[in-house]
Amino acid sequence: MAKQNSGAEEFIATSGEAEDAEKGMAEMSEKFRKEGSEIYISSK
């Protein structure tokens, strides 16, 4: 079944998944700040 046709229970993260996602977002936020907080980075 296609995910967009699934019930809400298919999208609810478990406690461990939510913690992992939060940790990953914090790590990427720190990387974003360290690299200058710019969405577009020059390829040069």
Q: Using the alpha-carbon principal axes, give the shape.
A: elongated
Average the pLDDT over all residues and give the rounded result. 81
Count of DSSP helices? 1
Order of helices and strands: H
Low-pLDDT residue spans: none
Sheet with the most strands, sense and barrel status: none
Q: Count the strands? A: 0
Strand content: under 5%
**Rg calc:** 16 Å
Structural class comes to mainly alpha
How far apart the termini lie comes to 44 Å
Q: Percentage of helical residues?
A: 40-55%
Explain this structure:
- The protein is mainly alpha-helical and 44 residues long.
- It is 45% helix and 0% strand.
- The protein is built from 1 helix and no strands.
- The chain starts with 14 loop residues before the first helix and ends in a 10-residue tail after the last helix.
Itemize the secondary structure elements and their pairings:
Layout lengths: L14 H20 L10
Summed up, what is this model?
With 44 residues, the protein is mainly α. It is built from one helix and no strands.
Salient structural properties:
mainly alpha; 44 residues; single chain
